[in-house]
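Recall that a protein's primary structure is simply its ordered list of amino acids. Everything else, from secondary elements to tertiary packing, is in principle encoded there. The following example makes that idea concrete.
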Amino acid sequence: MKHKFLFALLIGALLITSCSLPAVVEEAAPAEDAAAPAEESESAAAEDSGDKLEICVVHNSADHPSITAVVNGMDDEAAVFGAEVTYFDPAMDPQKQASQIEDCIARQPDVIAVNSVDPAAVVASIKKAYDAGIPVVTQNANCAPEGYQYLTAFIGSQSYDQGYAVGKMMAEKLGESDSGVIFIGGNPGQTDYVNRVEGAKDAWAAAGVSYEVLADQPAEWSKDKALTVMQDLLTRYPDGIDAVYAVDDPMAIGALEAIKAAGRETEIAVFGTNGNVDACQAIKDGDMYGTALQMSYLVGVYTVRAAYDIKTGRLVADQILAPTAPVTPDNIDYWMPMCW
């Protein structure tokens, strides 16, 4: 009986073991196999749910080197965030810009970015986007103050600081002399134009100097128009022009060409802003006296980052500004690799 009882226990234990082991394997294997399809379906669902960041951009002029740099920055950063960016170019036409902002509204993106052609005229279009529930940021050229209530942020450069840096260069170059200065700008009322001129004048005041502003004329950020404007000013002022501050390097190069053609390059110091390669080379060659870096690429980068933060409900600063630095004959070798 004792042997039969032990034999029965042994058989029972083997039966329990043989039944339990396959059960463990069968439960574990399906769990591992099911994990991958679940992750794939969640990823597919995220793509189908419209979670991709969508940005609609309305430039003021896509032909300008600064806007090209903004686009490059946006495209590079969009790849990081998996964002889709659509661009419109009104070619400095405020009515066309208004129409293109309406096109953006119809697309229902997560964020609309606007580089204002006419700061006052664009306000009505920005309000339409705001009323449609689409966040709007401005780039480089802000809207007029009455439109700030409809904006989430302005993304640009330290344009006042750029002007201040150039103003200091001018004071160092011209000293306390009773000099005559020409300003050549973009479109009237645009952010960077206004800020750079104001910054330059404040730098003069801080240096204790006062110069006569002979003319302050817009040239629509165009090298060719700046050349024409400068030709006219050289005729109007056959002497007495000691410095020209074109608030944008392509315009500075246009002005420089007119000055050289008139044979007056030794009497007129030319200043710009941007840090374009041709302007930096002109500084290195002794043809221009200085510029201030405009990190337009970073404006594009910061725009995409701000759009992502807006979409995800994060707090965004009212102003996001790319840094600047003065570029002069004394430091051109250091900054030359940063010129674009």
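The mean pLDDT is 88. The chain has two domains: 54-157+296-322, 159-294+328-338.
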